[in-house]
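Schema walk-through. Below, the input block comes first and the output block second. Nothing else is stored per chain. Lengths vary across the set, and this one has 301 residues.
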Amino acid sequence: MNIRRLVIYNPVARGSRRQGIGQDIGQQLANAGLACELQITDSPQQATQIARHAAHCGYGQIIAAGGDGTVNAVINGMADSASALGIIPLGTANALAKNLGLPEGDISAAAAVIAQGHTRRIDLGMINGRYFAAMAGVGLDAQVAYEMGSGWKRRLGTMAFVGQALTTAIHYQPSHLCLQLDGEPSLDIAEPVWAVVICNFPLYTWRLRFVPQAQPDDGQLDVVVFHHCSLGQLLALAAHNFLRGQPVAENPHVTVTKAQQMQITSQPPCRWQVDGDVAGQTPVQVRIAPNKLNLITPVAD
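--- output ---
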């Protein structure tokens, strides 16, 4: 069966910054037996528009080649369609790709996964009208993403996030946050909070597995609240999860629960991010959007 296949690629993603990247992508897909069309994007808004048009025109597969920002933008264009999302992870963090176990920076290996054609229908989260696949955050983690310079990401890769997280945390003042959540049991919080992280998959990012039990097709979001504590306690919490795999739910300064929807306000307003890209400031409305995306995965569902 002939599948119409469109690749939307970002030439400035960390793994794409070389001459002829589009030609390389096309050649590696052809080597895997996949015919495709290629379209370049220079902004998230353009990527969303291209993906929306492709889904409307009946493309069977829409492939995002780039980093988390490109993948999220493409998802926001094709969500709730019959098209399947393929990923060629070429960014720095590659949060969704890591959760799927996709090879990072290896176009040939990613093409082989797409050629296998295994798909899984997953839920998406939605925050203030914007979809996210892997995770969203309000507070410190969004501030880290806001202060992260693209030049440092290109030079240092994942280590740039570690340095920026330490720098930001030293100066960050937790906002007084009000969280109303329909979890089991329901949760209402009104206190200074470092961050609220909302996960759709187990892995938050590079070796930080906040909610090992999270499933992207269970009709719920996993919510992790990092309550205010000393900076030393926060860094120890992160280190224990990163180095030893200690579940954050075991820490007395963390609440982990599930929800289908929530509302977050704060004073002063704080930033929020989706799949690693800063998108705005509080207040936010968050909800689960069940069964919204066909996702190409390395393993049959």
